[in-house]
TrEMBL record:
This is DNA 3'-5' helicase. Residues 298-530 form the UvrD-like helicase C-terminal domain. It is an enzyme of class 5 (isomerase). Residues 9-297 form the UvrD-like helicase ATP-binding domain.
Amino acid sequence: MLGRSSILAHLNPPQQAAVTYGEGPLLILAGPGSGKTRALTHRAAYLIKEKQVPPENILLLTFTNKAADEMKIRLQKLLVPSVNSVNSVNSASLPFAGTFHSFCARVLRRYGQAIGIPPGFTIYDTSDQKEAIKQTLRKLNFSEKKLAPTAVLKTISQAKNEMITATEYPQYARGPWQRDVAEIYLAYEKMLRQYQALDFDDLLLKTVQLFRSHPEVLANYQNQFQYILIDEYQDTNQAQYLLTRQLVGKWRNLCAVGDASQAIYGFRGANYRNLLTLQQDFVDLKTINLEQNYRSTQTILSAANAMIKKNASHPVLNLWTQNGAGDPVALYEARSEIDEADFIVNTVATQTLRQPSFSPADFAILYRTNAQSRTLEEAFLHAGLPYRLVGGTRFYDRKEIKDCLAYLKYWTNPQDKVAFKRIEQIGKRRAEKFLKFKEKQAPSLSTLKLLDKILQTTAYLELFDSQSETDLAKLENIKELRSVATQHPDLTNFLENVALVEQENGVDQVNQADQVNQGVTLMTAHAAKGTEFPIVFVVGLEEGLFPHSRSLLEKDKIEEERRLFYVAMTRAKSRLFLSYARRRLYFGQRTSNPLSRFVNDIPTDLLEFINESLLE
DNA sequence: GGTCACACAGTTTTT
DNA sequence: CTGTGTGACC
């Protein structure tokens, strides 16, 4: 058995204070690299081991499945040090750790009927939502030209995030466009009900509604979850905030962890002010700052601090470290985006080939937009350096995967007209064969068997030419889907997993490097949150790109861009390279923009300017 | 019913 | 520039 001392060992004083804090609301403000996850998992372990809190009375909420899995693994190690894999352990000994959405889906499957939600509801992702909106527009005789489905969807989604329902929306609608949206919103809701579907936003909104209208259901959960720990609290939206308040209501043992300076998801409804106003929600809130950084050099931290301090609307933590000062932050002015890519490739090559102090996996390149990855990829391919690209089209957004899923979704829910539309689009004849097959088929097949039989009867795979490389990648993706199906023989479970758990990216994202995970990492600054690398390049630091042109006009948005740059900078452990191009080809357009204002906010004595001549 | 061509939009992203 | 999606035509 682990003793108390070993849970607290290797924790600094504020971390220990956070871990051992007793009853009542607790806010942990944790800067980048300050051991945030460590504090959270150790606190959960401490409650279980030292305070004898049964694991089932603890709830851990995160925003991504990745974060939830990470928590589980680390908690597992703390509780049963000899076991390394979550799967190999009786999960009953672990608290529920999951995303807000998966938690809500569970609640609604179980109790949703109380507010008219069928237990077998289908979950709509963004593209399903878009199709449902299109169907709504057609039904109401609105032109898609006048009302872009994506814009309408965005507005409705925002409303849902703020807990404004379709019946409430009309009273907030201003101007003709919003009044149109109000009408569409109502019709869209009606359609979802008919189709027995909930969109992602509904999972949160309906759960809050359920808890409001059925206090006895809420009481169940309140009683069960004596301790609630929430990660990345600055990313909560209004619905998640309300849900938190409901769940915490009885015991008031909320432990929220976050950092306003790392709030980068405002564009999708997150409101970092939830973090700042927690003090008003709980007058007895205890706040603990984690400001010692274990990741970066002092130079990197000082540069990042100076830069983020220009933000006026939220407090900024003062990070410090016992690591040394390290090298200055390097700044490279490139002639073009190609020159910029070459500079990076050369630098990586120098560090890994000529003087192999680092491996390619030690490097990350962070950019503002996905479109920037192409030039970088080309340079890496050219130089024969291994890389891995993070992001791109998500696995379940791929056409071939959505096609397969449409058949399966319709199989469990024939009300789902969005799925049916897709089935028809794949091919009318295929649709007929599929329907005929569905009628005579006994419903109790395993997911994999069913999927295979559908693929067989519809001859879906014949759409692909195994000679073509892109088609081959698609076939590989379907293979991957089959392997997911193997893990979830129950079709309903399978679909739930597919809707709420993102799969590793499909094969066409993978190049030779990925197999062994040995390449240089290429990703957006957003995708980099939560990661760290010895050497980080942040590229494209030009006005209009980073900060992005769509953010230039609003102060709030500029501040979010600045936080994003802060996140990017603080990924670096030992060396940080910044770069910008005097001229850049962007969407086929030659552009020329001044250096990003963010770089100007870094004190020059922390910077080192790199010339081309220095490269040789 | 299926294929091909043209128009057009194109931050960031998880669930 | 490039991927996607709609509409016209075979």
